[in-house]
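Escalation from tier 1.

The customer reports that the assembly of two entities below gives different structure tokens on two consecutive runs. Tier 1 could not reproduce it. I'm attaching the input and our single run for tier 2 to review.
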Amino acid sequence: MTDFVKIAVDAMGGDNSPKKIIDGIIHNHNSNKKNFYKIFGEKKIIENLIKNKIDKSYFELVNTTNKVHSEDSPLEAAKRGKDTSMWMAIESVKNKDCDIVISAGNTGALLVISKLNLKMIENIDKPALSALWPNKKGMSVVLDLGANIECSPKNLFDFSLMGSALYRSLYDNKPNVALLNIGSEELKGNETIKETFKLINDKQISDFNFSGYIEGNDLMNGNVNVIVSDGFTGNVALKTAEGTANFITEELKKALTGNLIGKISSLLNMYNLKKFKKRLDPRLYNGAIFIGLDSPVVKSHGGTDFIGFSNSLDVCSRIIKGNLIEKIKNNI
Amino acid sequence: MTDFVKIAVDAMGGDNSPKKIIDGIIHNHNSNKKNFYKIFGEKKIIENLIKNKIDKSYFELVNTTNKVHSEDSPLEAAKRGKDTSMWMAIESVKNKDCDIVISAGNTGALLVISKLNLKMIENIDKPALSALWPNKKGMSVVLDLGANIECSPKNLFDFSLMGSALYRSLYDNKPNVALLNIGSEELKGNETIKETFKLINDKQISDFNFSGYIEGNDLMNGNVNVIVSDGFTGNVALKTAEGTANFITEELKKALTGNLIGKISSLLNMYNLKKFKKRLDPRLYNGAIFIGLDSPVVKSHGGTDFIGFSNSLDVCSRIIKGNLIEKIKNNI
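Tier 1 run:
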């Protein structure tokens, strides 16, 4: 089983766990026989959920009796001890028993317990939370999304290298990288961004093409593949995009089904509307990736369903097969 | 004509000016006979555009031969001199000849020339660029959108008072005010935001209800009427929302018209789709408002059409009738 990707799964985090997590694993397994799942959670419940649905050679169950709660502060979560499903899953990556760890649980806890257990990659000062974002031509990588509220030019510079490595490991393509700013002219923005611009320009990076600045309204035009930002701005941008998407699709629904003609023609057009919905399905780009530590840590959205979780498992295997960590180390 | 709102109009800024500007004035005049337009621009062209469409008692033409260019830096724009249409329009407000000034031209130039000519309201340290933003229940006011990249707690506190005054002058309602942040818990965010939170809480403002923090995904749920942010974050949020809206409506168009069934049912559903489009029409909330100076300055989007410009003229008259400046002074 040497070419298998060994994924440590915290089965106790997120809404409707562990059922959602196990259903996600089963769904993932049905389309991918190259993943091995080391599952941390309540053994009895999980055994019942998984029974006969996956051959035993594809998974291992580790019984845990303690877990991180969704409302825990990161400190409280860490204090719950080393026997939580989250801690043990992370530890199995630390011990090189697994290649990558995934959880749909408490984000702050996951970041802090990961930092407590895993080493930073040499010369990286801060790890970053990154995610995939849909655009007109495909997907882009955006980071940081909230792990670091304040960032130095060196941090943002590191993020550009890590983001580029992540993009390459997922899509095997040389990306265009840009800094999120409030104007595209060289003079705009705050001092940190201007210095980062200079830093990237001066270093003549070969790993990516530097596209300079990008504004919020161009995030989705698909010309840039990696978007770099401090965690505060990136978080606001991502959440604003989510909020806008919800607002618009709700307004659309209201408009399209507000009267009989609307209902009938929407029924007629169901196939197209479904295509549209599928294109924007947040489950497609579920999963934030915490990078900068010597093993990648994947955070699935707590509210996603088993299909979303299965997609995050796909991200896990693609990252490992794409040699993300090695690529980051080569860049730094 | 004492109850008239006297609007100074820079007719030479923005795409397709002065035609768009004059058509906007004519359109505005047709539904509102309580505005007087003092128009600054090339007299001969404008006379030709306006002839007989508005009675001469409703407007005055001031010939200008110089103008600010869209690609001018703010400094270059100021250096073009006091005979540009933009400068002269602003000056007419400074001289109390007009109540309010509007331009669809270069934003940076408008901010700088306004600051050069108009006094700050006492005890306000920085003026802010604010705009209207659609939400599920109506419209909210968002500020700052890019006039101030870095802000102190005092600045953000001032913005909350100015934003509240703007909301009241437009909608005559006590608003809920919130700070844009990356979490809703009291502990989240950077130091500036946390201090602002404390400042607003301690002062026990009676002019608005303080709702604490708001995250990007809640911007459009309509529970908050005034959203306060530094100019960098606010600008990124606004533009990201714009970009997301464009992305989604384009994807929708592609999905709905990708095949014959789609085209037929969309045709059937044209009325509803139009209703949807109208609800999201950016012309409805065209116009940013620069507040903090002793006269309000309105910036129409350079790329909007005459209907969008006419809507911005409406915003001008509502602001003046709502006594915006007086309300701000009372709040400070």
